[in-house]
Amino acid sequence: MNFHTRKWVKPEDLNPNGTLFGGSLLRWIDEEAAIYAICQLDNQRVVTKFMSEINFVSSARQGDIIELGMTATHFGRTSLTLRCEVRNKITRKSILTVEKMVFVNLDENGEPAPHGRTQIRYAEEAFARYREGSRPVAVPQGVAAAEEEMAGARAEVDSLH
């Protein structure tokens, strides 16, 4: 499971019980899952088709830092199925799980379209495609700066050995 996004639970995110409002958390999950699907499928035209049972395991409180984790569990012809876990960043205690979220890849007319993917793609692969001159839609504009920063960090680590 890759945990990419962190959120700081603030007063405006709370319900009357003083814990994280489930609706806010679900909005964050849907957005993070859509971004994950976009990056995996190299297409900004994806939609949420299905979300399975949502299991609220524990609560988050004001000041907690939570992280959202996603992993692809199945690549269909036009769809991508994800699993999600939200946990407390510090304690690693699970807050919520969603076993199945299905996203559908769309063409420019909004119709389901085959995506041709069969396995998870990692950030390193996106950077490699960028360096080769093939810039997929999902790679952010700031990727060159990030790539330079990564190269500098690697050089710094290498110099320590």
TrEMBL record:
Superkingdom in the source lineage: Bacteria
Q: Does the keyword Hydrolase apply?
A: yes
MF GO annotations: long-chain fatty acyl-CoA hydrolase activity
PROSITE patterns noted in UniProt: HOTDOG_ACOT (PS51770)
Q: Which UniProt keywords apply?
A: Hydrolase
* Residues in HotDog ACOT-type domain copies: 1-109
Q: Which GO terms describe its biological process?
A: acyl-CoA metabolic process; fatty acid catabolic process
Protein name stated in the entry? Acyl-CoA hydrolase
Q: Which organism is it from?
A: Paraburkholderia bryophila
